[in-house]
Amino acid sequence: MQKILVANWKMNHSLKSANDFAKKFIPLVKDSRNKIIICPPFPLLPAMKENFFRTAILLGAQNAYFENSGAFTGETSPALLKDFCAHVIIGHSERRNIFSETDEIVNKKILLALENNLIPIVCIGESLEVREKNSAEKFLGSQLSNSLKNLNEPQISKIIIAYEPIWAIGTGKTASPQQAQETHAFVRNWLSKKYSLQLAQKIPILYGGSAKPENAKSLLSQKDIDGLLVGGASLDAELFAKIANC
Ligand code: PGA
For residue 142, what pLDDT is reported? Predict the structure, then answer.
């Protein structure tokens, strides 16, 4: 089955290194049957759009604001982004923790991204403290219901969800495939209770957190893991190509 592999470059790469990445990456993934989405920093989107023209590689942004225009210095509008990419990561744990984005803000961003025909990749994930208290499901359930508030069925059917346990991001500590599958099954079940089983089965649920070539296959072989959101290992063309070709 086709998987979705998303590269989250975060605040990395220069124009030169990103162009070098593209040159190396394109031939390496030309036979991949998966959906590949690269999310570079904003200023690299036009160059990457040019690089990936006539390839199957898609682009995404790492964030978008919840207004289309106005006096919001430093923010980026989803109405502008849609000319450069089809996807946008929303509610990444770094946005939530470093930039104080609440579920309410995440919800507003999702709704406006959808209005602009961007596909939101909505991130959820618990901290180590929450997991150790055995409260992960309760926490994720609340993140889901608040972040996805007021989304109707046609809207929810367009989103992608990424489960990224905070304790696994950039730490080298991956959730085991079984641990990730268990949580993905919980998310799928939550969606099916809230909407319908049919709809829940259509929504891709990605795993993120120290995904790399060595663990990609076993994570992707789990029933409810439809793809990966990759940070560190997506910066290198050869490493990410190995994941993208899984
Ligand atoms: P990582 O990051 O792969 O470097 O752990 C994943 C993410 O934050 O999306």
Answer: 98
Number of domains forming the structure of the chain: 1
Catalytic residue flag (residue 75): no
Query: How confident is the model over 124-163, as pLDDT tens digits?
Result: 999 999 999 999 999 999 999 999 999 999 999 999 999 9
In short, whether 169's Cβ falls inside 6 Å of ligand 1 is: yes
**Helix, strand or coil, per DSSP, at residue 89:** strand
Nearest ligand 1 atom to the CA of 212 is 3
CATH of the domain at 214: 3.20.20.70
Number of H helices, E strands in the chain: 12, 8
Q: Does the beta carbon of 209 sit less than 6 angstroms from any atom of ligand 1?
A: yes
In tens, the pLDDT along 211-223 reads 999 999 999 999 9
In a domain, 22, yes or no: no
What's the start-to-end Cα distance of the chain, in Å?
Answer: 11
Confirm whether 164 is domain-assigned.
Answer: yes
Catalytic residue among 101, 126, 164, 184: 164
Instruction: Say whether 92 is catalytic.
Output: yes
111 CB under 6 A from ligand 1?
A: no
Q: In which domain, by residue range, is 215 found?
A: 4-14+35-244
* Whole-prediction pTM: 0.97
**Is 20 within a domain?**
no
Residue 9 lies in a domain: yes
Residue among 222, 204, 29, 47 at smallest CA distance from 121 = 204
86: number of Cβ within 10 Å: 14
